[in-house]
Specification:
The chain is globular, with a radius of gyration of 15 Å. The chain is α/β, with parallel strands linked by helices. A hairpin with a 2-residue loop joins β1 and β2. Helices cover about 25% and strands about 35% of the residues.
């Protein structure tokens, strides 16, 4: 799995003009991409890493401050741009594989005690954020 975690002062996600998730206090906006070899165990590992990642102010984590997370699925994190000008999406897992794994990340975060908002899997989403810092971290989680 691959994730981009951005420290934000606030963030929201909307579908067709309707806001479906938002955080109004400092926390993390997390874009999550899934590849073919990912598993529920990898999803749990990513969730734990995100929950304890010390990138909030004062080198604290969401676990320490109870900061919220907004999790949005993002298959384009596995874009392959090695050849030509058009990205290939072959490294991104298809929806039937990736949707349950993104949901597993969210469920694992919630089981750790996290306040989690989400986007809508497969939808065209408008994501708004105020990046705090800016602070943006890319995480690759492999077994």
């Amino acid at each position: 799995m691959r994730a981009v975690a951005q420290r934000v002062s606030r963030a929201s996600v909307s579908v067709a003009g309707e806001m479906i998730g938002r955080i109004d206090t400092p926390g993390l906006l997390v874009l999550v991409g899934v590849t073919h070899t990912d598993t529920p165990e990898i999803a749990a590992k990513l969730a734990t890493k995100l929950w304890h990642l010390r990138i909030l102010h004062g080198e604290t984590s969401c676990a320490e401050t109870n900061a919220p997370l907004l999790v949005v699925s993002q298959f384009t994190l596995y874009a392959d741009t090695a050849k030509g000008r058009r990205p290939s999406w072959s490294k991104a897992a298809p929806g039937p594989i990736s949707e349950p794994l993104v949901e597993a990340v969210v469920a694992s975060l919630r089981s750790l005690g996290a306040q989690v908002e989400t986007g809508e899997f497969g939808a065209m989403m408008d994501v708004e954020l105020v990046n705090d810092g800016p602070m943006t971290i890319i995480l690759d989680v492999n077994e």
